[in-house]
Design a protein that fits this description.
By secondary structure, the chain is of the alpha+beta class. It folds into two domains: about 1-65, 2,3-Dihydroxybiphenyl 1,2-Dioxygenase, domain 1, CATH 3.10.180; about 75-125, 2,3-Dihydroxybiphenyl 1,2-Dioxygenase, domain 1 (Roll), CATH 3.10.180. The protein has helices at about 15-25, 75-85; strands spanning about 5-10, 30, 40, 55-60, 70-75, 90-100, 100-110, 115-120. Strand 2 (about 30) and strand 3 (about 40) form a beta hairpin. The two termini are about 25 Å apart.
Length: about 120
């Protein structure tokens, strides 16, 4: 059964957001070394309950979604894209490679909620 493994917070000013969440919750945040502008979030001890993996995605376009987005780990992104659309969902960001991490797509469910799906693949380019 696929599980939520990651969350994203959108931020107009990731440095300001980094400072806020670091000071409020003590989370560790650092800029990712990958090709996209992205900040990784460590929320605590991964042996305790909760999602330790998170990130900030910068908002640069006015129409980009402004919300918290959870990402579900799936074994085959293509299969789950088909399941989403067959069940009334809509793909809002098509399948894309996250270099060295995997394949990612975002969908809108039947209630208008944006959710990510990730297929791990270290060879993704």
């Amino acid at each position: 059964m696929p599980r939520v493994v990651h969350f994203e917070l959108c931020a107009e000013n990731p440095e300001r957001a980094r400072k806020f969440y670091s000071e409020v919750f003590g989370w560790e945040l650092h800029k990712w070394d990958g090709p996209q502008e992205y900040w990784l979030i460590k929320t605590g001890d991964p042996s305790k309950p909760g999602i330790d993996g998170g990130g900030f995605t910068p908002i640069s376009e006015p129409d980009k979604f402004r919300s918290t987005v959870v990402t579900v780990d799936v074994p085959s992104l293509d299969d789950y894209i088909e399941k989403v659309t067959a069940n009334g969902g809509q793909i809002v960001v098509p399948k894309m490679a996250i270099q060295g991490v995997g394949w990612l797509a975002y969908f809108k469910d039947t209630e208008g909620v944006i959710v990510g799906m990730m297929q791990p693949d270290a060879a993704a380019q």
